[in-house]
Design goal:
alpha+beta, five-stranded mixed beta sheet, two-stranded antiparallel sheet, 12 helices, about 70% helix, about 10% strand, elongated
């Protein structure tokens, strides 16, 4: 009865989280199958970890040691590190190369080898005649190697934050703190369930975050969409908007008609990257339509905005693409529609000027 009470009090939330996430994922399998597979892999690891921990807990209350407990302890040490590895794979799903994948597998594989070695020796850990788990220095291998993945996730969180994904960055920082508390409590206080709860909640909330971001962002370019633009304007106008810039790509229809829509998509992505690479952290880019983009600058003086636009124009001149631009300084005394129209008018003036220059050069040639 005590064992059942402990399972309910400690593991009820993680098990319930796993069940809910499985149901939600099965309803959204068509959304992105590769991402779905990564989460399924993590959830299977999480479920196996919960089982191994409870097997260990059950046999730890027996008066004499049992070999099943040693297997459960070994499995728990292995699964913890592989669970962190699977979390890194989810976070880096769009930037994963074969070389990076191999490097990330090394700590988890090394930990598994050390833990499997424990089945044939007492130099890692052993269970004495009183059924007490006795740990040797090598038994802390999973905790040491987990620091590698903590560092990787920390770097990802810092990078996400610097790229403007502040909500994701904050979520990852909180996750790291929760997992660190879980690991520390297991090692120092010999508690159970905190690590399991922290990881299960992290996976659930991150899965929901990804789906929310899916509705906020443009599928092709990854930048924010038109709906997000109007929502963010309401949020940012009290937080120091300084300028609104519009961008309109030139000759997209020509590219689509002569080279195909695949090349047109490639051109849109290339232009998006050029603009994004020149933007400061306090700015936000939106795809407003097929080849139209908007950028909202916050806490950025007008001279800096003008410098950014000049850099974008310069960077684009080194490519086969070009873009017309228009900027309007933010004025809280007039409506968004008026500010947008000012930027739009200046963007079309820039487009006519660029077309006139092209026609002049063609006539000379």
């Amino acid at each position: 009865m005590q064992f059942l009470f402990q399972i309910i009090s400690v593991d009820f939330i993680p098990f319930l989280t796993i069940i809910y996430l499985f149901i939600f994922m099965s309803a959204n399998d068509a959304y992105e199958h590769r991402l779905h597979s990564l989460f399924i892999y993590s959830m299977i690891l999480l479920f196996c970890l919960a089982v191994s921990d409870n097997v260990d807990f059950y046999y730890s209350h027996m008066s004499e040691p049992h070999f099943v407990r040693k297997i459960a302890v070994m499995a728990g040490f292995i699964l913890r590190v592989f669970l962190l590895l699977s979390s890194v794979f989810i976070l880096e799903r769009d930037n994963m190369t074969a070389r990076k994948k191999i490097l990330l597998f090394i700590p988890a594989t090394l930990n598994a080898i050390v833990m499997l070695y424990a089945m044939f020796t007492d130099k890692v850990f052993y269970i004495d005649s009183n059924n007490i788990l006795c740990r040797k220095p090598l038994s802390f291998t999973p905790h040491v190697l987990s620091l590698v993945y903590f560092f990787v996730v920390l770097c990802i969180a810092i990078k996400r934050n610097s790229l403007g994904y502040k909500e994701e960055g904050r979520m990852l920082f909180v996750t790291l703190v929760g997992i660190m508390v879980g690991v520390t409590s297991e090692v120092v206080l010999e508690t159970r369930g905190i690590f399991l709860s922290a990881v299960s909640l992290m996976l659930s909330f991150y899965y929901l975050y990804i789906h929310i971001e899916h509705f906020k962002r443009d599928n092709l370019t990854g930048v924010l969409n038109r709906m997000s633009f109007y929502a963010d304007i309401k949020r940012f106008q009290k937080d120091g908007i300084t300028a609104l810039c519009e961008f309109d790509m030139n000759n997209l229809k020509v590219i689509n008609d002569t080279k195909g829509h695949h090349e047109g998509d490639r051109a849109i992505i290339a232009v998006t990257n050029i603009i994004q690479n020149a933007l400061p952290h306090s700015s936000f880019m939106y795809r407003m339509g097929g080849d139209e983009f908007a950028v909202v600058f916050c806490h950025t003086d007008i001279k800096t905005v003008e410098g950014v636009m000049q850099k974008i124009r310069s960077d684009m001149s080194n490519t086969e693409f070009s873009c017309a631009m228009g900027m309007a300084e933010w004025n809280p005394e007039i409506s968004l529609t008026e500010i947008y129209n000012i930027a739009d008018k200046r963007m079309y003036e820039d487009k006519y000027r660029m077309k006139a220059n092209d026609d002049m050069q063609n006539n000379r040639s």
